[in-house]
Amino acid sequence: MHEQTLAIHAGYEKDAQGTMAVPIYMSTAYEFRDTEHAANLFALKELGNIYTRLMNPTTDVFEKRFAALEGGVAAVGTASGMAAIFYAIANVAEAGDNIIVAKQVYGGTTTLTGHTIKRFGIETRYFDVGNPSEIEALVDDKTKIILFESITNPSVDVADFDAIVAIANKHNILTCVDNTVGTPILCKPFEHGVDLSVHSASKYTTGQGLAIGGVIVERHNLVEKIKGNARYAHFNEPDASYHGLVYSDVPLPLFTLRVRLALLRDLGAAPSPFNSWLYIQGLETLPLRMKQHSSSALAIAEFLEAHPKVKKVNYPGLKSDSNHALAQKYFKNGYSGLLSFEVEDTETAQKIADSTEIFSLVVNIGDSKSIITHPASTTHQQLSAQELIEAGVPGGLVRLSVGIEDTQDLINDLARALG
Asked: Dihedral, CA atoms, 367, 369, 372, 376, nearest 10 degrees?
C-alpha cells in the first residue's frame, strides 16, 4: 500500500464493535483467562497484553502504523523523544563502552550524550556530520552505536547516510538516525542501510503540539547484524532477568523486543494510551501536512535568501544550499518545514524573534502553527561559544518551523520583523 493509505489504515483491525476510529484503551492492566494464560504471556509462549507499561492496544496500533510508514519491521513507543534516544543507547551500551554522535544534533541530545550519559560510564565521541570520514578514527572494540540526524536541528544539514553506514558496517556497528525532521514521509532511512530510527512524536507526528512522546523503529532482518556479533554479547547470551531468554534466538524483532522487556519494564518511560491515540490522529494527515510544510518552507527560504539583511539561509531545498545534492539523494517530495537563517548578530536575531506576529516564539518544531526560535539563547544555551560554532548555532542564527498557515501571510510577517 502507498503512504497515504498506510497512514490511515495500517496496524488496526476493527474490534467487535466495528469502530472506525481506533479506540483509546485507558487501562493499566488486563485480565488473564486463567493462570496458565498469564504464565504463557510472561514466558512469551503467547503474545498479548500484560501491563500498559509494556504494551497497550492503542499504543500497539500506533507502533505498527509508524513502523509501516517508516518501512521497518517493528516499533516501540516511549514517553518522549528523549526517552527514545536514551533507550536506543541504553539498549546496547554499558559502563566502559562508547558511542559516536554527530556534533550537529538537537540540544537535548547534546546534553544527554555529552553530560548525563557520562554518569552511566559511557563515553561519547563526536564527529562532524559534514565530514563522516572522521568516524573511522573514533571506532574501537567498545563502540556500540553511531547516532546522527537525517536533517540536523537547528543547523539544517543533511547527513550522508551512505558514507556513515559504510563505516559502521565495516566495523559491524549499529547505526541510529533521528528522523524527526525528515519524518517517514520525506525520508526512508532503512532504504539506505540504517539499522534504527528514533523520532520525537511530539513534533510532526502529532502536528499540533498536543502530546509528548517518542518512538524507536527497527529495520527488517537486524538480527543478521546482531546475532553472533561480539559487540552485542547481551543479545546473544541468556538474560538472567528474563528466564534466560536469548534475544537473538527469538523469532521476533530483537532490538525493540529488548527495549520493551528490559527498559520499559525497568525504567518505565512508556507512552500514555491517550497520547498514542493522538499520534494516530496525526499520522492520518502526516503525508498531506508534510507537503504543505515543505512547500511553504521553500518559498520562505527563497524570500529570505533574497533579503538584504539575511547573511545566509540554511534549507536543503534551495539549489544554492551546500546540502542540496544530498537532500535530493535521500529525500523525496520535500525537505520539511525546518529552516534557519543568519543575521548580523545575536541582538538582531533576538529582535526579529521578538517582532513576529504569526510566528510564535516557542522551543518546538513540527507544529501546524509556525514557530520562531533563537537557539543560541534557548535550546543550545548550555553550549560554550566554541561548541555553538561546532554545532552550527552562531548567535545570529534564527530557526523557523514553518507551519501550514497561508504562505504569503508568513512571508509578510517575516518581512515586517526584518524591517
From this structure: -20
Reported confidence tier of residue 387, pLDDT bands at 50, 70, 90: confident
Which H or E run includes 313?
Answer: strand 312-314
Q: Encode pLDDT of 195-252 as tens digits.
A: 999 999 999 999 999 999 999 999 999 999 999 999 999 999 999 999 899 999 999 9
317/291 Cα distance (integer angstroms): 13
pLDDT tens across 90-99, in order? 999 999 999 9
CA distance 30 to 50: 6
Q: At what angle do helices 57-70 and 273-305 cross, to 10 degrees?
A: 30
Nearest alpha-carbon partner for 290 in 334, 338, 326? 334
Q: Is the peptide bond before 287 cis (omega within 30 degrees of 0)?
A: no
Retrieve residue 341's grid coordinates.
537563517
Query: How far apart are the C-alpha atoms of 380 and 376, rounded to whole Å?
Result: 5
What average pLDDT score do residues 345-363 get? 95
CA distance 162 to 192: 6
> How many whole angstroms separate alpha carbon 59 and alpha carbon 190?
22
No. of H helices and E strands in the chain?
17, 12
Dihedrals φ, ψ of 409, to 5°?
Answer: -60, -40
Residue (of 197, 187, 246, 255) closest to 221 by Cα position = 255
Domains defined for the chain, CATH in brackets: 3-274 (3.40.640.10), 288-418 (3.90.1150.10)
Residue in the structure block whose three cell numbers are 503525508:
287
With cell 483509546, the residue in question is 24
Cα 98–Cα 156–Cα 6 angle in degrees, nearest 5: 85
Q: Report whether 340 contacts 156 (CB < 8 A).
A: yes
Query: DSSP class of residue 272?
Result: P
Closest CA to 269 of 57, 84, 64, 29: 84
β 312-314/98-102 pair status:
unpaired
How far is it, in rounded angstroms, from Cα 102 to Cα 110? 9
Residue from 112, 287, 313, 266 nearest 205 by CA: 287
- CA dist 322 → 159, 191, 327, 388 (Å): 12, 23, 10, 20
pLDDT tens profile 36-84:
999 999 988 899 999 999 999 999 999 999 999 999 999 999 999 999 9
